Amino acid sequence: MRKYLAFFRLRFSMGLQYRAAALSGVITQFAWGVMEILMFRAFYRADAEAFPMTFQATASYVWMQQAFLALFMVWMMENEIFNSITDGNIAYELCRPVDIYNMWFARSLANRLSRAVLRCMPILVVTIFLPAPYGLMRPVSFSAFLLFLLTLFLGLWVTAAFCMLIYMTCFFTISPMGVRMVATSVVEFFSGAVIPLPFFPDGFRQVAALLPFASMQNVPLRIYSGDLAGKEMWQAVSLQIFWLFALTFIGKLLNTLAMKKVTVQGG
Prior knowledge:
The chain is an all-alpha fold. It has one domain. It is built from 12 helices and no strands. Helix 8 runs antiparallel to helix 11.
């Protein structure tokens, strides 16, 4: 366990050094958040009663999504890992007395957390002072805030576990681009990254809520805004835990198969 914690600390401290990139990311996310909220505002003015969430809850959903973008966006994967698989540098990784899956998982968590730490505070501090209903609302209760933090980290682990599936799948393909593009598109649509899941029709939403993608950002962001509560909330948290273990098990199984078939070309 110590060696994987060492990988985590190393990657986390390395990620904190990219402050200029974080600043540009904050500016981009502010601009994107403003555009999204103004778009939703136009729809709400047409017929506010047609929407399942209040406008302030939707605005808070958008701001929290932008603040913690690095935790949940599947497209924020490590090109270094993909390159090591395709160009043969995986041979150096195999020489280390570590488990590839655990090492990459620790690196993925560290990279996402370091990016989120640098970007989240400026967004949260500014948006909480924006006038209602455009700003970030405060948590509906202290218990909801604590549960938000718990599900936030569960969502991060589910996202990292899903990304590990993509990494492991690339051992069985010629190029990772196809798998990466399809996976990114599917996750963004079904996780609520483009449109919050409550905005979809009931039948589709009920099916989407059972998929692992809904356990990423959909659950913590809706808990924070108070849109997800009661029995439905506890079911969502249970699904987060289930998908965390299920995706990790499948990822480790693929890792075992990949290590038996991996071939490094060249001399």
